Amino acid sequence: FPSLFQLAALERQVFDFLGYQWAPILANFLHIIIVILGLFGTIQYRPRYIVVYAIWTAVWVTWNIFIICFYLEVGGLSKDSELLTFNISRHQSWWSENGPGCVRKEASMSGIKGLDNHSYISVIGCALEYRYIEVMHSSFQILIALVGFVYACYVVSVFTEEEDSFDFIGGFDPFPLYHVNEKPTNLLFKQTYLLLFPTGFSGLEGMNK
């Protein structure tokens, strides 16, 4: 599962880089770091790192729901706005010009005053509008995040059960192999002397006094 999560995050990052979508690029970068952290926690037996990943999945799901609302223009959002580029460029999704079946055409605008040396780019023939491709990407990320959350909870529960059942002194055996004798040393010495010298026990007591 962790390798699948990483591949999905890297794939999303590549296409956001191609479209100069700075906000998604930053979010994807954080997501990749947290996924690596969760993988490290699984391999190195660090439940806290896995808990961090589980918490992040909730944030990641929320972010992808926002992306879906953005491209579907829900709640006053507009897919043509510069919100995802921090208002520093007018770039759109890479899929807007490179989607399946899309044909990109450039028409010179030199005949229009004030627009010399500029060109108008039109995209025709797209089999699927780019916003639906972005929505499918985000929906897939949500599905992966939910699977990752369930997987993280399962791993944490397994680690917790192992820690609770393991006895650091005697292992899993409730009766340790090395049993400590609680009898006083002086009493053991007297019993040993009595076995060896039954008649001399009174003399030993006189010496101890």
From TrEMBL:
<protein>
    <recommendedName>
        <fullName>Sodium/potassium-transporting ATPase subunit beta-1-interacting protein</fullName>
    </recommendedName>
</protein>
<feature type="transmembrane region" description="Helical">
    <location>
        <begin position="20"/>
        <end position="43"/>
    </location>
</feature>
<keyword id="KW-0472">Membrane</keyword>
<dbReference type="InterPro" id="IPR008516">
    <property type="entry name" value="Na/K-Atpase_Interacting"/>
</dbReference>
<keyword id="KW-0812">Transmembrane</keyword>
<keyword id="KW-1003">Cell membrane</keyword>
<dbReference type="GO" id="GO:0002028">
    <property type="term" value="P:regulation of sodium ion transport"/>
</dbReference>
<feature type="transmembrane region" description="Helical">
    <location>
        <begin position="140"/>
        <end position="159"/>
    </location>
</feature>
<comment type="similarity">
    <text>Belongs to the NKAIN family.</text>
</comment>
<feature type="transmembrane region" description="Helical">
    <location>
        <begin position="50"/>
        <end position="74"/>
    </location>
</feature>
<keyword id="KW-1133">Transmembrane helix</keyword>
<dbReference type="GO" id="GO:0005886">
    <property type="term" value="C:plasma membrane"/>
</dbReference>
<dbReference type="Pfam" id="PF05640">
    <property type="entry name" value="NKAIN"/>
</dbReference>
